[in-house]
Design brief:
The chain is elongated and about 70 Å long. The chain has one helix at residues 3-24, and strands at residues 26-30, 45-49, 62-67, 72-80, 85-88, 94-96, 99-100, 114-117, 122-126, 144-145, 149-158, 161-162. The chain is mainly beta. The chain has one domain (28-169): Umud Fragment, subunit A. The N and C termini lie far apart (42 Å).
Length: 180
């Protein structure tokens, strides 16, 4: 095969691979609101994976989902799992099944208080910017179904950093042990 043929094959393979990854593995989402401040700011780009298992979703994970009520795709943090009881107090404290939830990612507490029992195959989601987040506390149907979850945020592409469920973020480790 000549050089031109090899280049065409390489380009075609790269395009097919990129389309496959975009369609079945991950995609880039743009943050467009203040509801996840300070963890995610408007203009940030995040990588979201389609490859997650609902039985491995945990409190603190950041999910992208479709809100049937609001008819739009949103991003929020998981606060309540199926079968859990979530209580939110006037001071912003969140308790799950009688235990206070540590939330180092919340810097703007506030908003509605309430008590919620999460049904099977549903999740209770809140924005990190509780004072200015349209989330489960405000919806007529406060729970998001498993089937409406579009993916789990795994990496903040711009600015570059990894996302986790403990403190909202931690440094991105590069090959060779370098930390970004």
């Amino acid at each position: 095969m000549n050089l031109a043929g090899m280049m065409i094959t390489a380009i075609a393979t790269a395009l097919v691979t990129a389309l496959f990854v975009r369609r079945f593995v991950l995609y880039v989402a743009l943050i467009s609101s203040n509801s996840m401040l300070p963890s995610l700011k408007p203009g940030y780009k995040i990588i979201v994976t389609y490859l997650y298992r609902s039985d491995r979703i945990k409190v603190g994970d950041i999910l992208v989902f479709y809100s049937r009520e609001l008819r739009k795709t949103m991003i929020k943090r998981v606060i309540g799992l199926p079968g859990e009881c979530v209580e939110i107090f006037a001071d912003g404290a969140v308790w799950i099944n009688g235990e206070k939830l540590p939330e180092p990612y919340v810097h703007y507490a506030g908003g509605a208080a309430g008590s919620y029992r999460i049904p099977d195959q549903r999740y209770f989601l809140l924005g990190d910017n509780r004072a200015s987040s349209q989330d489960s506390r405000h919806w007529r149907q406060p729970y998001i179904s498993e089937k409406d979850i579009r993916g789990k945020a795994v990496l903040c592409l711009y600015p570059l950093r990894r996302l986790d469920s403990e403190g909202g973020k931690f440094p991105l480790l590069l090959p060779g042990g370098k930390i970004l």
